[in-house]
Amino acid sequence: MNLIVAVDENWAIGLKNKLLVRIPSDQKFFRQETTGKVVVLGRKTLETFPGGLPLKNRTNIILSTDRNYKVKDAVVVHSIPELLEELKQYDSKDVYIIGGESIYRQMLPYCDTAHVTKIYHSYEADTYFPNLDELPEWEITATSEEQTYFDLEFEFIKYERSV
Question: What does CATH list as the number for 2-161?
Fold first, then answer.
């Protein structure tokens, strides 16, 4: 299973339920990686999407503890065990965890590949992704060339679980 995330220098991912920054090439990479695949996200992350609607051309699985929560054109599950059961019907290499913080933290143990856009800037933030550089079971297996968007430098880093 994969996860895909954009982080700043401190592994921050958001502030007040919004992304820290929108970088067109990061958004393009996200679309290329996830189109036609399965995306797993929390209710709060879904609410940040345009119109609060599921992403097009993907199977959207929403994790919400609210048993009455329904989303048109998406599958809603209410627990990690229920989510894992739902995911059995898909090839795990086609499953992408896309946030937010609590979903990333709960699903990290089940993932073996992390696509991280590392932004070399520090933002004010209130949500964070676990620092994979501090977790011995994760290693960098690929990096892009450093890229620039206006004055921001960033790169795409692929981490894989080594254990």
Answer: 3.40.430.10
